[in-house]
User: Which sequence fits this backbone?
């Protein structure tokens, strides 16, 4: 094992100190029963002082500190981020998902640790509900802490443009901790440049192991973090392949995996799908104060992973063919996955408008989601939301916390024709919201960023011009079914999957749930319900196929 010097004086966060402050979930006191359970599946190690137990960028296991301590070191800055003390264990949510470590793990003097390999930890979590609750709650709480502080070893650097926004959105939607350094901040840029060779222009990603990627794609970023092909090899086999990690797909994964099925989920954008971009969902059962799409997606993802679901993201599916044992699905990187059954939960995406110059400003004032990332852009300025469905209403209400004023453009005469009553009521009576009925966007302005919009007010037969920093498009629902063309799957005139009883599509063993299904109710609760119920139909199909 590699050995590195242990600093005598350190600025760090102590797990014990955090526990005293508040976060009991993140650093729980393990009962004797749980300690005994972990000992049954672990091995005791006595590393030397300064011994490197794992490096940044490595997969890693759970280490329970019995004596001494472990330093979690930001290798890029040679900075001790955390000291894990006796009674506490190493790890955050990425560990349980097979992602690579963002920090080095270094032993202090007199350290004794219990190492539990990840595979064994999964087995123990499956057999012990108490261990599952304690460990997963701790890992999730730590991921949230790292995300809030931007302490993930990952730096996104560059100009405030569409490329940087694309990476920020991907990291944020996938709950990957990161911090941003802009060229427009010379002090922060110079500080980063002391330890990193930054490009003169364009976007760069700096990982925890000091790897620098220039002009990376989201796929490059995912590969560097180890989240793109978790546990998959070519010609991977599974019981059920779920296409899409929105509410319907995640529900199918949770219920399928919890009932013993081997489940793989393929997602091409981000966990949570279109619903993951919703800032606040207030009409979802069990959340009287509302829940954000990100929170709901994170919780569902953790449930799915707990039961053994393998998640592949970002990957698109390019083809589907029937085989003697089920289906073969081709990914966009030429990997194949063989599945006995396939659940299509690929959802729908917002329609683009054919307005001159609009596409050039995407990510630079024109957005298809309204999260904290986009809300910063409209701080104390005008924001314009186009759309009359619930997602547009939720976005508009969220933006009122940041924008000076929010303007909503709808094609109909009244919001209540397409939006839930509680949302329409709030928007209609909000002092910083104006609803413009029978309005149609006709132009945008701005050279490098959006500076204004223009729309046609058909009610008043007038053209309206408005200075605006953000334009949020949430209109229409175009199904993500291009990959099904030519596969023999019946689609309706708009491209949605036609289903019959039990959510069966036109091919045996193929099912469709959620927004991608023709005739579905475009609501989160409905999608979750369909994703849950379809598992019974899948079980029945697999049982019949086994008897054939």
Assistant:
């Amino acid at each position: 094992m590699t050995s590195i010097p242990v600093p005598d004086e350190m600025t760090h966060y102590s797990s014990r100190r955090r526990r005293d402050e508040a976060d009991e979930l993140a650093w729980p006191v393990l009962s004797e029963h749980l300690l005994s359970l972990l000992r049954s599946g672990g091995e005791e190690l006595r590393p030397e002082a300064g011994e490197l137990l794992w490096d940044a960028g490595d997969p890693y296991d759970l280490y329970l500190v019995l004596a001494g301590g472990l330093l979690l070191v930001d290798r890029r800055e040679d900075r001790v981020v955390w000291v894990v003390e006796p009674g506490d264990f190493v790890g955050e949510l990425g560990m349980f998902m097979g992602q690579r470590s963002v920090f080095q793990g270094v032993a202090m003097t007199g350290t004794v640790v219990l190492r539990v390999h990840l595979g064994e930890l999964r087995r123990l979590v499956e057999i012990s509900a108490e261990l599952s609750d304690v460990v997963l709650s701790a890992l999730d709480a730590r991921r949230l802490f790292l995300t809030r502080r931007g302490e993930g070893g990952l730096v996104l650097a560059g100009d405030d443009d569409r490329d940087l926004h694309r990476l920020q959105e991907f990291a944020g939607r996938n709950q990957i901790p990161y911090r941003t350094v802009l060229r427009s901040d010379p002090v922060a840029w110079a500080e980063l440049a002391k330890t990193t060779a930054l490009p003169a222009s364009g976007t760069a990603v700096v990982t925890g192991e000091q790897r620098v990627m220039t002009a990376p794609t989201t796929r490059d970023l995912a590969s560097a973090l180890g989240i793109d092909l978790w546990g998959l090899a070519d010609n991977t086999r599974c019981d059920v392949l779920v296409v899409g990690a929105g509410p319907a797909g995640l529900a199918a994964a949770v219920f399928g995996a919890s009932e013993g099925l081997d489940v793989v989920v393929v997602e091409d954008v981000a966990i949570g799908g279109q619903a993951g971009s919703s800032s606040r969902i207030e009409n979802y059962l069990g959340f009287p104060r509302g829940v954000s799409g990100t929170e709901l997606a994170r919780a569902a993802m953790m449930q799915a992973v707990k039961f053994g679901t393998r998640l592949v993201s970002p990957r698109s599916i390019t083809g589907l063919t029937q085989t003697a044992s089920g289906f073969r699905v081709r990914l966009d990187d030429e990997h194949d996955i063989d599945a006995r059954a396939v659940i299509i939960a690929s959802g729908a995406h917002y329609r683009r408008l054919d307005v001159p110059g609009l596409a050039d400003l995407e990510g630079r004032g024109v957005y298809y989601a309204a999260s904290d990332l986009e809300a910063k852009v409209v701080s104390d300025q005008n924001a314009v939301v186009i759309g009359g469905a619930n997602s547009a209403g939720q976005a508009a209400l969220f933006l009122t916390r940041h924008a000076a004023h929010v303007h909503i453009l709808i094609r109909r005469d009244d919001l209540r024709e397409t939006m839930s009553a509680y949302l329409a009521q709030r928007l209609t009576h909000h002092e910083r919201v104006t609803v413009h009925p029978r309005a149609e966007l006709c132009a945008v302005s701005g050279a490098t960023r959006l500076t204004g919009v223009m729309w046609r007010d058909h009610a008043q037969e007038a053209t309206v011009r408005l200075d605006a920093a953000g334009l949020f498009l949430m209109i229409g629902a175009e199904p993500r079914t291009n990959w099904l063309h030519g596969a023999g799957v019946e689609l309706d005139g708009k491209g949605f999957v036609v289903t019959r009883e039990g959510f069966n599509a036109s091919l045996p063993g193929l099912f469709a749930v959620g927004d991608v299904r023709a005739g579905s109710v475009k609501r989160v609760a409905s999608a979750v319900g369909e994703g849950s119920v379809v598992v019974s139909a899948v079980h029945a199909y697999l049982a019949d196929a086994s008897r054939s």
